[in-house]
Design brief:
The longest helix is centred in the N-terminal third of the chain and has 7 residues, at 75-81. This protein is globular. The protein has 1 helix and 17 strands. By secondary structure, the protein is mostly beta strands. The relative contact order is 0.25. The strands form 4 sheets. Strands 6, 7, 9, 13, 15 and 17 form a 6-stranded antiparallel β-sheet that branches. Strands 8, 10, 11, 12 and 14 form a 5-stranded antiparallel β-sheet that branches. The protein has one domain (2-267).
């Protein structure tokens, strides 16, 4: 997205990219996922998002998937501008679909997500390491490798956020947040006991400055099946380490049925 309206420092509009599907058997499940980020004004004039979704049809039928984009700015900015914020979808923007695997379907897990919660119930990380839920994947195909995707939307607490996220209140400073994130896989026996050594993905460091406020962090772990030690299943989760700075919201509130923190796994 490209911004066409001139803004000043501190206006910081946000843009949300939503990827969602509809079809038989999806009722009661997340309809899609989203990624979001605020723009740092006046220097930044464009923004982009990465939303990753794996559709595993729960039953036969016809499914429709689409990409939606929503930009927003505070009311006081709109009042000063005397009109709406104008944004343009750049030429070439598209929704790409790829069949999982090469010539034949392979084992895949429907995406999992943090349960939908009101904003005031979202977890706020002040220090230490937080493990976001998790998922148990049953290994069954003869494919050569496993891919695990984990995406999380986070917000660094700034003054005024306590109205929506009460757990942001009382921080000694609101100076942005620095986080480390990584994916872990623990191979397991059928009874849930550990079956092979823990597999830890690459650590990704992300800093969210106050002007950015909201950001999506995308992690991926690709593992050769041989590293699973022949175990029948594994438990996977995303870990978030608060390195320094202000408290950080881990988003769990679905936007019109679209999940902000979620994962997928598949064999290929």
């Amino acid at each position: 997205m490209t911004r066409l309206t001139s803004l000043i420092a501190g206006d910081n509009p946000g843009t949300t990219f939503l990827l969602r599907c509809s079809g038989p058997g999806l009722s009661g499940l997340p309809s899609g996922v989203y990624s979001a980020e605020n723009m740092i004004t006046p220097g930044e004039t464009s923004t982009s998002g990465l939303s990753r979704w794996l559709l595993v049809a729960p039953q036969p039928g016809r499914f429709s998937c689409h990409l939606a984009v929503s930009s927003y700015v505070r009311n006081d900015v709109i009042d000063r501008l005397g009109g709406p914020l104008r944004m343009r979808v750049d030429a070439g923007a598209e929704l790409r679909t790829t069949r999982v695997g090469a010539a034949h379907p392979v084992k895949a897990a429907r995406h999992w997500a943090l349960p939908d919660q009101p904003h005031d119930k979202n977890f706020v990380l002040w220090n230490g390491v937080h493990r976001t839920g998790g998922y148990t994947y049953q290994v069954s195909s003869s494919a050569a490798q496993m891919t695990v995707v984990q995406d999380v939307n986070v917000t660094t607490c700034i003054p005024g956020d306590q109205a929506r996220f009460p757990r942001c209140a009382g921080a000694p400073a609101y100076n942005g947040s620095t986080l480390n994130t990584w994916i872990e896989i623990q191979p397991q026996h059928a009874d849930g006991s550990n079956c092979a050594p823990l597999i830890k993905g690459t650590v990704r460091r992300t800093t969210v400055v106050p002007a950015r406020h909201h950001k999506t962090i995308n992690d991926t772990l690709i593992v050769p099946k041989s590293k699973l030690g022949g175990c029948p299943k594994f438990r996977t989760s995303l870990l978030i380490d608060h390195v320094s700075g202000a408290p950080t919201v881990v988003h769990a509130t679905w936007a019109a049925g679209n999940a902000p923190t979620y994962g997928v796994a598949y064999e290929s």
